[in-house]
Amino acid sequence: MGASFVPITIFTVLWGVVGIVCPIFAPKGPNRGIIQVVLMLTAATCWLFWLCAYMAQMNPLIGPRLNNETLIWIAHTWGNPYNNGTK
User: Which pLDDT tens digit goes with each residue over 21-67?
Assistant: First the structure.
């Protein structure tokens, strides 16, 4: 399983709009610069967090831990009967 082009593009565009387009429409006033910076930093950090979470799913560090009974049941259900290591 590799990275898919579609979700990366969609979320990059989404957070790009939040970080680039939304600051343009910040209300005028003494805190306009702060609001713009907050929007840009929010977009950058949320996009980076999403990207890390998305990439972590591609190659997980740990897998599910199953006990022997579950493994035997799965092998039997999938048509590979458990035979205690003999052929």
Answer: 999 999 999 999 999 999 999 999 999 999 999 998 888 778 778 89
What letter would DSSP give residue 25? G
Say if residues 18 and 43 touch (Cβ distance below 8 Å): yes
Neighbours of 47 (CB within 10 A): 17
Q: Position of tokens 């039997």?
A: 76
Residue type for position 21: V
pTM, two decimals, is 0.66
Type of residue found at 5: F
Q: How far apart are CA 53 and CA 84, in angstroms?
A: 39
Q: Is 19 within 8 Å of 44 (Cβ atoms)?
A: yes
79 dihedral zone (left: phi>0; alpha: psi -120 to 50; beta): left
The residue written with tokens 């990059």 in the block is: 12
